[in-house]
Write a structure and sequence with these properties.
about 110 residues; mainly beta; 4-stranded antiparallel beta sheet; about 15% helix; elongated
Length: about 110
């Protein structure tokens, strides 16, 4: 029974970590001569490991496809804590409302 519970926990972690928010934007005709435009910034063709908005993208002449590098916290004490996006780490910090220097425990996130 313990092995089965450990397996379920491992699978839950794997599924959670693999669930990123993704999207594709089709380039307008003539827009893609030098790369792909995303949120007003031009990115070169090829793989983009991290955009200014914390996405990993692939840019071609036809489209740009991106997936988030962050996961949004959903399982935390919403009365005691708040979420703050940390653009430097591309992640959400969950901190206490009354003392933002203290982290809160997060038990689940979604992409």
């Amino acid at each position: 029974m313990k092995s089965f519970l450990a397996f379920l926990l491992a699978m839950g972690i794997t599924v959670t970590l693999g669930d990123a928010y993704c999207f594709t934007k089709i380039n307008k005709p003539g827009e893609s001569d030098k790369g792909c435009v995303l949120n007003g910034k031009l990115y070169p063709f090829g793989h983009i490991s991290r955009t200014d908005d914390c996405y990993r993208c692939s840019c071609t002449q036809n489209q740009i496809s991106c997936c988030s590098l962050f996961h949004t916290p959903v399982g935390y004490n919403k009365e005691k804590c708040k979420i703050v996006f940390n653009k430097r780490s591309c992640n959400y910090d969950v901190v206490e409302n009354n003392d933002p220097s203290k982290d809160c425990f997060v038990h689940s996130r979604v992409g």
